[in-house]
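Hi support team,

I submitted a single chain yesterday and got back a structure, but I'm not sure I'm reading the token output correctly. Could someone confirm the output below corresponds to the sequence I sent? I've pasted both exactly as they appear in my results page.

Thanks,
R.
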Amino acid sequence: MRGPLRQSQVIAPFGPGSMHTDRFGISLICCGLDHWFDESDQKAIEEFKIDDEWRIQRDLQIQHLRLPPDYRRTQMGVEVPNTGMTIPFLRFPTWHYCGNCGKMEKTALTYQGTGNEKICPVCLQKKSIRNPLVQVRFIAVCEHGHIMEFPWAEWTHQSHSPSCSDDSLRLVEHGGGTLDSIEVSCTDCGKSRRLSGITSSHLSVDGEEFSCTGQRLWLHDEEGSGCGKPIRGALRNASNIYFARVFSSIFLPRHSAPADKILPITAEIITILERPTVNGRLDAMLQMGGSHGKIIEQLKQHHPLDFEEYSNEEIAVALSQYTDSVEDVAKEKSSKESGPFDRGSFRLEEYKILIQEWDEPYLMSRAADLASYSSRVTRCFSKIILIHKLRETRVFTGFTRLSPASEQSPSELQNNLWVEAPNRRNSWLPAAIVHGEGLFFEFNNATLSEWMNGVAGADVAKRIEGLRNNFFEAIADRPGFPMQNELHPIFIMIHTFAHLLMNQLTYECGYSSASLRERLYFSSDDQAPMAGLLIYTAAGDSEGTMGGLVRMGLPELFDPLLQQAVQKAQWCSADPVCMELGTHGGQGPNACNLAACHNCALVPETACEEFNRFLDRGVVTGTVENRELGFFNTFIN
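Hi R., thanks for writing in. Yes, this is the structure output for that exact sequence:
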């Protein structure tokens, strides 16, 4: 194996189109989805298929999801299914150079050497020295996601059609920490040029920009279909050459009745009907229009062990409820096919489910007794839900380069994952499933209204207005920038509180900061209001389900935890500067944070939905001059 990766890593950050350095130091680019599976081997595909994520299938308009294939070796005496499955990578960049003399040479994308066997012919001939050729560090990209070799010959000769051969190119480093210390030259004509400025502006010759040819090298497309966008130089391991688009969903039962509103035996049967092994056959029978009686006979025939202990009448009750939910999903799907994805509606579905108690295989939760908490806690929260088990599915839906924003539509981004995109009936996307636990908080609407409409309400709105202006100025020239949430003062408060709570939980419950995640639920729409927060673990291993996080939600532990989190946030080690920046321009990416920095309110970016933006301690704890600004000011002694 050239470079083993975990299944979750193939979703992000090493999905199709990404750059990865293997254990031999070779730079590779992950290929598209066409060759991840042998489509003729449907039996093998069934093992990796995920077809019970009905909300994702509905909103992304795909037939199913698939886990990335994992590599398995054959074992003597043991039958191991699907052995030898791999995800293909191509060697990129293909330009190599000698660190001694600078000789440049190009290989093929499919070259499979480990690198040391490719020897510089110039050094070997002149000095009998075996210097290996190593990959160059520079590539070229465009904002539409295309990636290509850096135009070495064109850059050196300052011409779009140089006449000298590629064999005459030399890449020499003169020493220094800037790109100006690196020079590419031609031994035939003597021309040379430094690499200064290639990463900060579009590549050009005498004022004429290089145009992207539309190459999709991760799909082995070296010709390109034309693009026309200007290209920019980049380091092959730069963080801005790949931004994975990951769609995240908390698994919800397809039936909408919570645990206390449905008969236990009906819930058991519905759980069986939602299993992937049963679900696919059942949906097919429903589409064919068979009666419930015939469907029950077929289910008992093909899945006798699953249904043998249930009577036909009991199965019929569960099947009716399941059928109603399927019809509701179909209606929602048909209504959404003509319009864009509505993130607010997607989150509202989760919000309505998470505030209830459930006892399902992938969602087990119970509501805490608020009477057991202090009055300060009940003033802030109307519900605290202890989620003992949940499942999160993360779907790779495409990628962008140079910026997370993109002018391309979701369908265009998905088409970049294939040489030939599958038809609708066979459409799929790669996904990873992780299991964890969590705490869900529903904020007290009465207290939120009192805070926003009270004495400090006008000051809170005025404070947040500067952050809003900074953000809108930053995205004015960036069409397609994803707007996740409305920048409402309540949203800023919930988001900042989530970070402060996660930072405190890392000290109390033993989870690392990267193991915790936030999920924000907010809407100021009077028809569908939301004000909630989910803190959960989804680390992909046993660490995500140890029970430590749920335990911290118990009254005797949560009261002091919350007080410590708020009191610590009163003062940052960078104060008074950090707090003062909240009223004088802001800080962080695009000045989209107020009083929030690495010393007080930031978390690992994998844990934050907003890339550590839209944070302000002032709306949580208040400021030194005015503690009434803070929603949680009652926790400050």
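A quick pointer for reading it: DSSP finds 20 helices and 23 strands in the chain. Let us know if anything else looks off.

Best,
Support desk
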